[in-house]
Amino acid sequence: MDLASIYRAEYGRCVATLTRLLGDINLAEEAVQDAFTTALQKWQTAPPNPGAWIVTTARNRAVDRLRRETTREARHAEALLLHQPDEPQEVGPVKDDQLRLIFTCCHPALAPDARTALTLRLLGGLDVPEIARAYLTQEATVAQRIVRAKKKIRDAGIPYRVPAEHELPDRLPPVLTVLYLMFNEGYSATTGPLIRTDLCAEAIRLARELAALMPDEPEVLGLLALLLLTEARRPARLGPTGDLVPLADQDRSLWDRALIAEGHDLVRRCLRRNRPGPYQIQAAISAVHTDGAATDWRQVLALYDQLLALAPTPVVALNRAVAVAEVHGPAVALAALEDIDLPGYHRLPATRAELLARLGHHAAARAAYDEAAALATNETERAHLQRRRTELTDPRRTS
């Protein structure tokens, strides 16, 4: 495994562990970054446990930095760090370092967007462009949110500690958002390989930890079900040559039946609770897609109608339009796209292109494919859009 892959896989764990040891998010992140810089200079091959090497090196770097400081607070922090046991234990409901850091970053004193942006940076190791794509916003805006969140944590003295059990439900919505966005980045990466299995696996692992911590929260179960059912389709998502395979064209025999069975069981548990929420409804949609040999699009559309009522976002409206096309035809779906505003989001013109092509408007479809390809940041997705464009009929024979 190369250093870039190790960075993606280990960064969040190392920052979480160092934050527990140091009690300072900024110092932890800087120490981990310094340790990876040292690894770049020293490693010929990666050690057997690269994460442990990074944590040890980062801790030593933090001690060195504190020794250079002259303040009483720095000397006190150094003394605490030097006398930390190798595996310090903390009493409280959250045992996992990363899950604990997620709850810490999702403190109610921080603005909602700042919470999730900071957590995606620290836990997922996502870069600013990747987080900006997840938010469908500008990179400069995301960078400012992260800086403000760190400053707020420092200035307000927000402690790195385990939330009390009665505090957990109030912290839950942004935690769910973080895990959802982390998985999405893993499933459709901003750049590089389309799928980052390490990020998908980590989001699922943390979702399982969260479900064990809060087994009576239906939205937690819904999110876990959604991630499992989406992950189940991953083996069929790319063709033998690495080309993107749309859902309708996937070989369903490649889907992971064990994950599908687990996901369906979780969806049934959610239904019995009768407290529907956005993640549960998305999980139910995924359950319909993975139930049987073909998708029941009328059921999918009915579920999207419920989801749009609970979460009236442009992305939900766009996904609903896809179901509308299958039930009522591409012309009705195309009309539904007119009121959707998603600047910079390549899937909007890509969906428009598909609908126009189905209607036989190939010239307009090609223009929409060009727009989508220009907006796509992942090469695999861009290549798929360009390939779909070339598959259209010769323009001299169409409108």
UniProtKB/TrEMBL annotation:
Presence of the UniProt keyword Lyase in the record = no
Highest rank taxon of the organism: Bacteria
User: For the RNA polymerase sigma-70 region domain, which residue ranges apply?
Assistant: 7-70
Q: Does the keyword Lyase apply?
A: no
Concerning Pfam families, the annotation shows: DUF6596, Sigma70_r2, Sigma70_r4_2
Domain RNA polymerase sigma factor 70 region 4 type as annotated: residue spans: 102-153
Residue ranges occupied by any DUF6596 domain in the UniProt entry: 171-270
Matching entries from InterPro entries are given as: DUF6596, RNA_pol_sigma-70_dom, RNA_pol_sigma70_r2, RNA_pol_sigma70_r4_t2, RNA_pol_sigma_r2, RNA_pol_sigma_r3/r4-like, TPR-like_helical_dom_sf, WH-like_DNA-bd_sf
Keywords, in A-Z order: Sigma factor, Transcription, Transcription regulation
| UniProt family annotation | Belongs to the sigma-70 factor family. ECF subfamily.
NCBIfam families from the UniProt entry: sigma70-ECF
Do you know which PANTHER family this protein is assigned to?
BLL6612 PROTEIN, BLL6612 PROTEIN-RELATED
Listed name of the protein = RNA polymerase subunit sigma-24
Q: Which organism is it from?
A: Micromonospora andamanensis
Gene name of the encoded protein? rpoE_7
